[in-house]
């Protein structure tokens, strides 16, 4: 009897092993098919453009150097893929000056972008009495004299790509949009409802 139980246990373990190996082979086959589809379709990262920036406040105080700013942006994103959709998750936008963040991050709603679709966002970014780093304070003072400030608008988010019913994992997307703001006699903006609107239509750099 004990010998029979041993053979029965061996067969049971062998069956479990076969089931496990079969499941593993199935998983590998599925992953290979997904990889093959992915390689053939070659997903391309989205392209971004900053269309305009409307400046409602950009005030600098000295000793210490503090910056208060309110800016409304218009940013577009285009999905260049004809067979791949894009999900945008945890999307935040903020303004920087010489690599220093000068506004709080504004969160945008999650969005799905279909094949060849274009999305448009018009967020406000705010910064109230933000301390400017000493080396940037000197540069900002010089920019005020020249009546020209170069900002970089940054977007951070996680993207997922959709191929058919398959949805990829999340990838970090880093977007940098140059925005040149001019003041005084050099201003190229147009007065709009208490702010100055600058037409930029500038392509952004995108890292994935």
UniProtKB/TrEMBL annotation:
The chain crosses the membrane at residues 20-41. It is a single-pass membrane protein. GO terms for cellular component: plasma membrane; plasmodesma. Residues 74-177 form the Late embryogenesis abundant protein LEA-2 subgroup domain. It comes from the Eukaryota. Keywords: Membrane, Transmembrane, Transmembrane helix. InterPro entries: LEA_2, NDR1-like. It is found in: Membrane. GO terms for biological process: defense response to other organism. PANTHER family: LATE EMBRYOGENESIS ABUNDANT (LEA) HYDROXYPROLINE-RICH GLYCOPROTEIN FAMILY, OS05G0367900 PROTEIN. This is Late embryogenesis abundant protein LEA-2 subgroup domain-containing protein.
């Amino acid at each position: 009897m004990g010998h029979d139980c041993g053979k029965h246990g061996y067969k049971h373990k062998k069956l479990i092993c076969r089931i496990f190996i079969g499941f593993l082979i199935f998983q590998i086959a599925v992953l290979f098919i997904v990889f093959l589809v992915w390689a053939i379709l070659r997903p391309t990262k989205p392209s971004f453009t900053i269309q305009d920036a409307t400046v409602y406040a950009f005030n600098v105080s000295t000793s210490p150097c503090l910056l208060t700013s309110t800016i409304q942006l218009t940013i577009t994103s285009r999905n260049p893929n004809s067979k791949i959709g894009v999900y945008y998750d945890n999307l935040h936008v903020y303004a920087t000056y010489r690599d220093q963040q000068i506004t709080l991050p504004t969160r945008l709603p999650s969005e799905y972008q279909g094949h060849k679709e274009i999305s448009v966002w018009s967020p406000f970014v705010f910064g109230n009495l933000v301390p400017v780093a000493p080396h940037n304070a000197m540069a900002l003072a010089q920019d005020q004299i020249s009546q020209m400030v170069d900002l970089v608008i940054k977007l951070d988010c996680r993207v997922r790509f959709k191929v058919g019913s398959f949805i990829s994992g999340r990838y970090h997307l880093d977007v940098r949009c140059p925005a040149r703001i001019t003041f005084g006699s050099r201003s190229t903006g147009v007065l709009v409802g208490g702010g100055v609107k600058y037409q930029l239509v500038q392509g952004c750099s995108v890292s994935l």
